[in-house]
Amino acid sequence: MFDSNLEAVRTRYPVLAGEISRTENPIRLFPSQTGPLTGEIPTTSGPMLLHSRYDPIREAERETDSILEEGSSVLILLGMGLGYVVRELVRNRRDRFYDLLVVERDLGLFRAALESVDLTEAFRDERIHFAVGDNPSSVLETARKILPGIMSSRLHFYRTRTAGSLNGAYYDRVTEEIHHLVEHTAAEFQLMIQSGPQLQENLWRNLPHILGQTGVIEVENLLADVPAFVVAAGPSLNGNLHQLAHVGDSGVVLCVDTSYRLLKKAGIDPHFVIATDPTELNERHFQDLSFTGDPILAFDPEVYHTIPTLVPWRRLVMNLETCATTRWFEQEFGPWGVVEKGGSVANTAFSLARILGCDPIVFVGLDLAYDPKGGASHAGGTALARPFESIAPGAASVTMDRHAATNNRLEENLVWIPAALGGQVPTSRIMALYIRKFQQEVALCGRHVIDSTEGGALIPGTEVLTLGHSIEAYCSKNREVRQRLREKVREPQQIDSTRFKNAINSVAQSLLRAGELAEFGLSLTDQLTPHLSQGAALRDDPTWIRMEETFNTIYRDPLVKVGVEQALFSAIYFFCQKEPPDAVGERLKKYWVFFEKSRTTCADFHRLTTTVGQVSVPVAR
Fold first, then answer.
1. Out of 6, 109, 267, 448, which residue is the most buried by the measure of CB atoms under 10 Å away?
2. What's the whole-model pTM score?
3. Which tens digit of pLDDT belongs to each residue from 17-35?
4. What are the C-alpha distances in Å from 536 to residues 70, 96, 461, 544, 545?
């Protein structure tokens, strides 16, 4: 049994199979009264029985009865014992879950399971995943692979009977990490549902403005000996902003677009202004400004499309790997290189500082929290600052007043977290996700990261110093930063305009065909609607099959993805929600929504891409 199990593991997890071959079994295995093996594991308080002495298979049947309700879900099993629960889930409960992730910390216990129970069926099922060993990062990596299933169904955690006693703290940590991952992904999905069409429009309208421009790939490690000052727009910035004037050319100042107006008013000329936000509110940061000085506009293609035309500075393109469109841009017209965008523009500025090779990296104005005494969400004088009153200790929410961009008040739910200067401060749930993202990046970046915000939330892993001390310690000599940047970040280079137009035309034609197919798909849904009473049998109807084929033709067309992937996100997300096999009415509605959204969206972006293909671009001679 062990050999067949190990061979099945080796097929999908060759590294794990090698580790198991070198691992000893610490379990005392012995037959239960009904025959199947059970076992005892040594603990500090004596042997612990892993399964029933009488009938471990029947025990697993009872245990799995309580795990899953009817309907599809994603199950994360924490601890596997000798594998009886896994075997029962696979053999007799497979219709109850979509994906299964089995997490087992103990390599020795996993080996014992391979010696005790036939798990080959589980190892061969592509929708059943194993994360074995003391490695939370590996668990998260595996969880990311099943995120589509998690986000389109119910997530269910189940801790096996002995897992809490053996490795409870480990499974607590894994559970927390996966919850954070899901929460962060849910926030990204909500953004895509709300802003997908705007993001897609920005990508296409910005394409002519990134062609031939310098990309981050060309400035990698350009400033390896230079300290970076990442300037966000938190309220603490009003207290120490003036000190940035002492940085000069001894460091590189990367300010987010929200804070640029304040720096300019203070007479500080940053080296970079970072712009990534996709909504029209972003334009307010640049309105009524005279664009003097010599900063570089560093932006990604999702930024609101008026920004690159409004700002006359040299440009640095930070491409993304987030969707088919940006990957196609990189392949056809790049390379520019990519950045990890993160949740906020400050995350992107931190990414750029790391690409430049800067060390140390100093945060300024990165509060990511609200002052309990009251104040504003952002630094005073910025376009997005919302005033609020004092916040009582432990309060669950705060009312944010209007800001310059909207007349709406905002009720913000709060969580309380450690403060950079001691004690606790309130923050929003979304900023708590940003903090966690910064914490992860700081831990992995291999740089000395300093928080000189002088207020706000504690970002674990950073050294807390005043801005004055950071400047004094690291900005004692001129490093000629502007000159280095002038030599690398150049005026746009010429491109092959014929190749550009042909590439854009191929996308436009695919969108035209997809729109026509969507019209046909709608007619098929109309034909099927009167026959919903047939139930699951309707799925075998030739018209239903043609409808599925039409959907697949649109959905799998790579150039349709290039053209409208983000704009169609809400329809795809709705389509991917799991429903019972006999709920044909629900499934038919999802097809209708997809075809209707595809019909209008493909028509809109056919017109837009056709227009973009006619725009003048830097022409190769």
1. 109
2. 0.84
3. 899 999 988 889 989 899 9
4. 17, 18, 55, 11, 13
